[in-house]
Write a structure and sequence with these properties.
3% strand
């Protein structure tokens, strides 16, 4: 049987989250990122007790990538960066992204890195013109990016309430940097349309069992030490 996630490797592990057998590579790389693993999964428990060296290296690389992205930010900019990053991680992927099939009734486009870069670029442009006293709403090109911008706008407005043009310039710089980091992550993994989103999920999220209402818990606060 071929793994339904990658479509190339032999499926040898029974995955309770997907409901199919999947390959060991997809199990290891998509665990808790694209696959919402139950707490009693034996492969998840084993990985937590004995993380592979490749996983540890990936964690170090991810944290270094994020630290480089905020290398010269002020405290306020760093807080805004993580506010946006946490919101990105909380955006649910389309169910069709797991098995590569259409899900009837789900018309929401899946958020991918290009949408993040598009939304960040448009929002940065709007803030930059506003800081010069010009009101002009830059619009993202994709529907998913437009929805993301609509989700982020009230959060950014609240964070900058009463701070004026100085905050608008700082926030625009943060969004330009996120757009840049998104493109860099995609360049490092050209075959993964969610390379940046997956990286953020690995850094910011430790997904546990679903709560009684069936919803996944909110991401834990980042353990990164902001310079």
């Amino acid at each position: 049987m071929i793994c339904p996630l990658c479509g190339t490797r032999r499926a040898r592990r029974s995955c309770p989250a997907v409901g199919h057998q999947i390959c060991a590579v997809c199990c290891g790389t998509k665990r808790l990122v694209q696959i919402q693993c139950p707490a009693d999964c034996v492969y998840l428990a084993s990985a937590r007790e004995h993380p592979a060296a490749v996983v540890v290296r990936q964690q170090h690389q991810d944290v270094s990538f994020v630290a480089q992205s905020i290398r010269d930010f002020s405290d306020r900019q760093s807080e805004l960066f993580f506010l946006i990053a946490t919101t990105l991680v909380r955006q649910p992927p389309s169910p069709s992204s797991l098995l590569g099939t259409d899900v009837p009734g789900d018309l929401r486009p899946q958020l991918v890195d290009d949408d993040v870069a598009d939304a960040m670029t448009a929002m940065a442009g709007t803030l930059e013109t506003a800081s010069r006293g010009v009101i002009y709403d830059h619009r993202p090109a994709s529907l998913a990016a437009e929805r993301l911008a609509a989700t982020l706008k009230p959060l950014v407005d609240e964070a900058g309430r009463g701070l004026g043009a100085a905050f608008e310039r700082e926030a625009a710089a943060v969004m330009r940097r996120i757009a840049e980091a998104t493109r860099d992550a995609r360049a490092a993994e050209p075959g993964n349309r969610r390379a940046w989103l997956d990286l953020l999920a690995r850094v910011l999220t430790r997904t546990g069992p679903k709560d009684a209402a069936g919803d996944p818990p909110a991401p834990e606060p980042s353990r990164l030490i902001v310079p």
